[in-house]
Design goal:
The chain is an alpha+beta fold. Helices cover about 30% and strands about 30% of the residues. Strands 7, 8, 9, 10, 11, 12, 13, 14 and 15 form a nine-stranded mixed sheet that branches. It has a seven-stranded antiparallel sheet with strand order 2-1-6-5-3-4-16. β3 (about 30-40) and β4 form a beta hairpin.
Length: about 290
């Protein structure tokens, strides 16, 4: 059965859902997006994802062509029409059709589409055994150049780092800022645990304000796990008791090898397991029902 895609107020088949080659999202990567997960019919923290979407659009003077309530309803309806109980949602707002020049004024109307489909970023067994990560030579674009809080369609910086991971036979790559501090992975936030203290790079350093990252910090507070935002180096990760990545796709994924060094005892650690257990409870009840 073909997927049903929401596109500018219509629900179309995958084959019929098309945008113009003159859309500035294609020509210049001019647009913003969100990725959201559905667990047993619950769209996890949809409100926070939409907040970030509207903030990203406002930051680049991009008008979202749908009111907030209608956009939430479109997410629910897209999931329902596809009959999914568990899936991933990709929401994209483009600048719209323009000409071959860069001027966004030439794009008179923005466009919006929503895709709901299955996703399995990592096999289930890796949540116990962990993944291998390398440090990329590609540096993360800094906040002095472009705000990382804008979840834009231009991910080439991250893609280049992912290519380095692929070439090294690793699952993912860490990205550093120009001063050599860890910012994030290619599409996930980074956490370490050392002597019971949970640490993650501060957002001002250039990381995306991840929804899963925020959830993990909230869970840590609720469970009484000591935590703080602090700059991290490769050394901090090499000697950590635990290390893991967080993101909508990855959820909470342990890292058990970095640049050839085994992290901790080489498997998912006790702090990560406690966080993941609570996270998997929350994803079922926090959000908007789509069934």
């Amino acid at each position: 059965m073909s997927l049903t895609i929401y596109l500018d107020g219509q629900y179309l088949s995958r084959e019929d859902a098309k945008i113009s080659v003159f859309d500035h999202a294609i020509l210049y990567g001019d647009g913003v997006f969100e990725g959201t997960r559905v667990y047993s019919g619950n769209i996890f923290r949809l409100g926070q994802h939409l907040d970030r979407l509207y903030d990203s659009a406002k930051a680049i003077l991009l008008r979202i062509p749908v009111e907030r309530a209608a956009l939430e309803a479109a997410h629910v309806e897209t999931v329902r029409r596809n009959g999914f109980k568990d899936c991933y949602i990709r929401t994209v707002v483009t600048r719209g059709v323009g000409d071959l020049g860069i001027d966004p004024k030439k794009s008179k109307e923005s466009s919006l589409f929503i895709i709901a489909d299955k996703i399995a970023l990592y096999p289930a067994e890796l949540y116990s055994t962990g993944i291998a990560v390398v440090t990329a030579s590609t540096r993360r674009v800094g906040p002095d150049n472009f705000s990382p809080r804008v979840k834009s369609l231009n991910y080439l910086n991250n893609v280049l780092a992912k290519i380095e991971a692929n070439n090294a036979g690793a699952n993912d790559a860490l990205m550093l800022d120009r001063n050599g501090y860890i910012v994030e992975a290619t599409a996930a936030n980074v956490f370490t645990v050392k002597d019971g203290l949970l640490r993650t790079p501060p957002l001002y350093q250039g990381a995306l304000p991840g929804i899963t990252r925020r959830t993990v910090l909230e869970i840590a507070a609720a469970l009484g796990i000591a935590h703080r935002e602090e700059r991290l180096t490769q050394y901090d990760c090499y000697v950590a008791d635990e290390m893991f990545l967080t993101g909508t796709g990855a959820e909470i994924m342990p890292v058990t090898k970095l640049d050839g060094r085994v992290i901790g005892n080489g498997s998912a650690g006790p702090v990560m397991k406690r966080l993941l257990e609570d996270f998997r409870r929350r994803v079922l009840v926090e959000g908007v029902r789509a069934d």
